[in-house]
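Page 42, continued from yesterday. The earlier attempt failed because a stray header line got pasted into the input along with the sequence. Redoing it now with the clean sequence only.
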Amino acid sequence: MGIGISAHRLAGTVAKFSAVGTISSVDLRRHHPDLMAQTHRSRDKKLIDSVNLIALDREIKAARTLAGGCGMLAVNVMRAVSEYASSVRQACASGIDAIVVGAGLPLDLPELTAHYPKVALIPILSDVRGIALILKKWMRKNRLPDAIVIENPRYAGGHLGAANPQEVADPHFAFPTVLEGTLELFKQLGLERERIPLIAAGGINNHQEVRELLALGASAVQLGTPFAVTKEGDAHPNFKKVLVEARPEDIVTFISNTGLPARAVRTPWLANYLDKEAKLKGIAKAKPCTMGFECLAQCGWRDGIAKAGQFCIDTQLAFAVNGDIKRGLFFRGSEELPFGNAIRSVQELMQYMLTGQRPTDLKEPSLERYLLPS
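This time it went through. Structure tokens are written below.
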């Protein structure tokens, strides 16, 4: 969800209502004034990395307190970040219940968490091929995922599990195709279908969709954008305003500086960047990291990789979490939100998704079906 969008307040509240609340691990120091005071003007990578681990520990403990012993807490760590391994280890040491990893294949996650066998390991994948690769690699290490998030890049926000923007709508990513193919894969590998829960993610915005996905073989669903815009979401109110007011034509898919496709709202900064993208790629060259701490293992801007995005993602995401509409990068899924442009509570959102019961003062949303592969 970007920097600081899902921190202790959102994750802890979701867990409080007996679900899995997820903390995004990236650059959490931005929620802690004392840590920002130490590092705001610093270009010392070791210092910034160390305070971010302190911030991660604080956020996990604060979320745990807020949850009051209910639900589960997870930390999402992008495989693409440079401090992936240290973030995983810190989350485990801080008592997290689950590690969720996307934006790359976490082939080494079982080794990184070997001393924490009770921590659930949950990769985010988008097609049967990726799921098969993880399962076969991990099975050789006598480990299985505790669940798998199946994220459909046609509808999800943020970084997407497709090779390029042209492939995000490919039929092989459709939920029926991936769910059916994964269950067949389980049979081939001798795994009981109940052994690894499958969690559908990407564009899910109403109770009926949840029911249909469960009927197709999913065990649960994951929501991103709908939770990000709740009252308890950790971002600035302007962040939520941008997401809820975005029209379909405002939402665009482009190449991030990670080299992966990403989906976001076309705000002034993104519109200006996309207008200049070809020119910037044409003059791409290696340069010092803008922020000094090299947040990504591979960065198109820093490393001069012309096929990747040419901007500092940490800078733009930080503007977004702080509510800077002109300069921020605002990740968002493609679909209408469950409550339209209304900002409601986590409890109301969960009640609607689980039961179909909407707040009485809100009108019914349009229900666009997308489950059939097309």
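Notes: Residues 8-235+344-353 form a domain with the TIM Barrel fold (CATH 3.20.20.70).
Reminder to self: strip header lines before submitting.
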